[in-house]
Prior knowledge:
Structural class: alpha/beta
Helix content: 40-55%
Strand order of the largest sheet: 10-9-8-11-12-13-18-22-21
Amino acid sequence: MPRSDDRSTDRGLPSRIVAHIHRDVPLVLLDATLILIAYLVPLALRFEGEVPADYWASFWLLFPAIGGIHLACNLLFGLYGEMWRYASVEEARRVALAGIVAGGLVIMGVMLLPDRPLPLSVVMLGAILALIGFGTVRFQSRLFAFKRRTEPEEQHRVLLVGAGQAGAMVSKDLRTNRHLGLRPVGFVDDDPRKIGLALQEVRVLGPREAIPSLVERLRVDQVLLTIPSATSEVVRDVAALCEQADVTLKVLPSVRDIMGGKVAARDIRDLRIEDLLGRSQADIDLEAVASFLRGRRVLVTGAGGSIGAEICRQVAALDPAALTLLDHDETHLHDVLTELEGDVPIETTLVDIRDRERVIRAMMRHRPQVVFHAAAHKHVPLLEIHPEEAVLTNVMGTANVVDAAVAAHAERFVLISTDKAVKPVSVMGASKRLAEQIARSALGNGSIFCAVRFGNVLGSRGSVIPTMFRQIARGGPVTVTHPAMSRYFMSIQEAVELVLQAAALAEGGEVFTLEMGEPVNILDMAKRIIRLSGRVPGKDVQISITGARPGEKLVEDVIDPDEELLSSAHPDIMVSRPVPPSRSALHAAIGELDVMVRDGRTGDLADRIKAVALGLPVPLDAEAAS
């Protein structure tokens, strides 16, 4: 076996040598040709094409030596046997050294020969030209490949909206990285002082109202909004102008989504419904939130839901001592667990908050210092049909979690509530108002309890916007319950950031209401979503008015007029501190609802929970209810 291996090795060595020769001989011959041209051209130019016979004879006599010196130096410095496609600075350095050493030797040799057989200027220029030739040959694949990569066949003409710092960064990036296939042809900006000026060699051509005419005149393929701080009004206006011009609109992320304050072409993304419906982004005191959570044990109920999962993601990034995810849905719990990264110890607890004993055991086992209670049923029409589910989860479940947090001596408890809890007309809103009262009733137990209210969250599971997109994908119709129906919207990320900010501000007993901006008309939103999907409302996709459903308000209330507003340290967070309910009355009310559920008396349950939440007298005494 060894001898067989040796024989195979011996047979392989000559074949490899032959392969090397076969590969390198063309390059050697090309180098020899370059050397000949490099020295011959200066000689011919030196004498304007009429080379004296003695110089001509000396040239041909010395050329084999000159060529041999150059080729030997090329071999010595490793200019053969390389994959020059991947050459770097090190290879370029070796090319330069080979040319310099060879040129120096040739010049010295000619100077030492008697009678100077060739003009020194010819030899020096020939050495330089040979060096340039060697480098060009070896790096031509890199140069040509770069050219192909940076100059694609199709260049999309881009009109940039916003001649500010972000616009300058993006314009420079597009011109530098031509392989992206985007060529900036102009800016539009509403500042009249900028019109006519050039930014990064791209001229400001007019205000944004000029977009349609510029698109036609400049044959623009794409409009790019380069204003990360653009309000929804600006985005909607630009989107309408682009729709009028029949051109695609792309945007940059908001300021909060841009890392390090720098933007680049890679940040460009498609227009989203959040851009059309959103508001000016709130500023968050991240350091205050981080110091509040850093080094603390945190537990999140409903961790698999849209809000709960985002709370988990943001908390995990703020260096807590431990993070516990509690949910009754193992699929959603698994999904959020796979998204969380980092060194934070993360544990899961598969528990239904309706199971009082198991919730208390879980809380005692993990001993959280901060509890975010996001577990809840939230769909208004379904809870009108199944009010017992609202009682069991939103009311009784909250009572279980509150009692468990008190037993575990949690420092802070944050209830995720809703604007539907203000003067509730739905089972869902009434159940969340009762949940708020349950949390406030726990004051005085050594823990800080607070609630945070906000409206609809863009893109949350089962919310109106994903539903509309699914209806559009099926060809319609898109259903709207009432032409005057309006709702407050905010992104999941911003809602949770403000939840964390409110939690850091809490002193006990507050209800924090997040500033939601202006309500959005659902019919107008449906039309925008249809247009965003590349279709025409009423033509490609119909809109169907179905009528308001039970438990729906045309416009949700944000502030309860019966609750006195207090000043807040954050401009986008409003605070009230309602009077804590009577514990005995609350216990009686919850007991009554529990009895009605257990007895199956669900026919009157929806009306009863709304009446209890609004503070109407409870007919049964606490003793009978229990």
